[in-house]
Amino acid sequence: MDRLTAARVFVTIAERGSLTAAAGTLAMSRAMVTRYLNEMESWVGTRLFHRNTRRVGLTDAGARILAQSRELLSLAEQLPEPPGGDAGMPGVLRVTCSQSLAQTLLADVVARFLDRHPESAIDLLAAERIVDLVEERIDLSIRVTDTLPQGVIARPLGVCRSVICASPDYLARHGTPAILSDLMGHNCLSYTHFGRSLWRFTTPGQEQVDVPVAGNLSANDSMALLAAAIAGAGISMQPQHAVTGPIARGELVALLPGFEPPSLGVHAVYASRRHQTALMRAFLDFVVERFSRFYRRP
Fold first, then answer.
1. What's this model's pTM, rounded to 2 decimal places?
2. pLDDT in tens, 240-284
3. Is residue 86 in some structural domain?
4. If you ran DSSP here, which 8-state letter would residue 294 be given?
5. Do 184 and 243 share a domain, yes or no?
6. Are 111 and 147 in contact (CB under 8 A)?
7. d(Cα 150, Cα 179) in Å, to the nearest integer?
8. 84-101 residues labelled b (16+ CB within 10 A) or e (exposed)
């Protein structure tokens, strides 16, 4: 996280007397204010506030750090403007993620960020493949995976559940599976890059169970499988972000409550911490904040 912003958050909390009041002053969510404060306390190695449900009070260490933080912010304000006098964050940020994530979640995050920072631009590459960050000049990749390549920096954003689902029309014609073994009698749509014959679940008793499944449709694009499931083609295993909307609209029904399909980590991946632009830091922090509202923490 940006230490200058963290210092500004810390000073604002001290001046306003609460995290909620500081969030309102800074136009941040309370969760993001909390994250900056936690990072600040991690950097200095001690607690900065005594906290209760209503207000916060500085610790002795916090009082010392407050004076230093105010001095830091004062020095930052004395720095000259960049050439052209633009105090904003101009530039283009190249971001990549899967088509599913782009269409169902990240596009909205990008739109909200650009509304807040209209002087910035984002080039979003949606692809169902692993993009080489260096060769394709990618600044930031959002990946839903538990397997990350060596040599990259990965910032955890949350945990993405998988959901077993089907359309009401399909269930009316073929019945609703009540137990895991019922899946073997259904048309199960499979994603080409995952195992096509076994779906793994964790039972309520925390037992791992592999269920052999089969169906007449497989695809290398999860959005195609999602569309097919909505159209009534069969039962699909989909990432949480893809089915939240269709389930809320009644287009899909979540199945087999209590049996947990695999979850995957959601990561912001980039090549280096060095030479990060203000635009990169601001967008990454914004993604962390927005994704924390959707995914559970790792």
1. 0.64
2. 999 999 999 999 999 999 999 989 999 999 877 655 788 998 999
3. no
4. T
5. yes
6. no
7. 40
8. eeeeebeeebbbbbbebb
